[in-house]
Amino acid sequence: MSEQLALETRGLNRSFGALRVAQDIAFRLPRGARHALIGPNGAGKTTLINLLTGALPPSSGTVLLEGHDITAMPAEARVRRGLVRTFQVNTLFPHLSPLEATALAIARRHGLCLNPLRALKHCSAVISEARDLLGRFDFGADAARPTRELPYGRQRLLEIALALAAEPKVLLLDEPAAGVPEGESDEIFAALSLLPRDIAVLFIEHDMDVVFRFAERITVMNAGQILREGTPDEIADDAEVREVYLGEDGDV
Fold first, then answer.
1. Mean pLDDT highest for which of 61-65, 135-139, 238-242?
2. Contacts of 80 (CB under 8 A, 6+ apart)
3. Which of 33, 168, 180, 197 could form a disulfide with 153 if both were Cys (CB 3.0 to 4.6 A apart)?
4. What per-residue confidence (pLDDT) applies to 248?
5. Sheet containing strand 200-204, strands side by side
6. What is the pTM of this model?
7. Whole-number Å distance between alpha carbons of 131 and 25
């Protein structure tokens, strides 16, 4: 039986004049995957995420979501089809509470309560769904606090909750623990480990301890190309990967 793919690229390229930032990328993300994307700074990791999500058009090549060609599809349409991302830097509304922000995201997905003058309290089903989603991230009393008052790690969790409000089939996380203290980083990945298996997760991360704990497969990029892909053990034992990224001393 052939592998069912959530996301795939074929011959994906992106150039800025003579500068090639993505070179002939062939990538396959199975349904339900827990997949890390690693590599040195400037390797092309975020560029690949931007190509996948439509933030950046490819110079050539194809992007497929569940077998459907989405290469020319705008970013918002890809979200509606189930391809959702988070960013390295939070993109949150600081004056809204997590409950308000999550409810608005859910309402947008349902096409409900889109008049900003209408109080969300009149959308009881949306509020209930928002509370259930935030409960999966143990927000509790924090659900009613202004987002600007939350610790940074909780804000990162909120961004993931907002991404899940779109009911993604593929969740792309660009350094979800960036700038987060170690204890809060563990909380983020503990929450991610509980996501249902009908969501494929591709994440960029520089903390190798986190990568080797959470990822089932790892893709290593270097100079805009895929250098290697394999299991955590295969990547840790690969001499070329150790040289270009993990360190020549082999300390992982």
1. 61-65
2. none
3. 180
4. 46
5. 83-86, 170-174, 200-204, 34-38, 217-222, 225-230
6. 0.89
7. 40
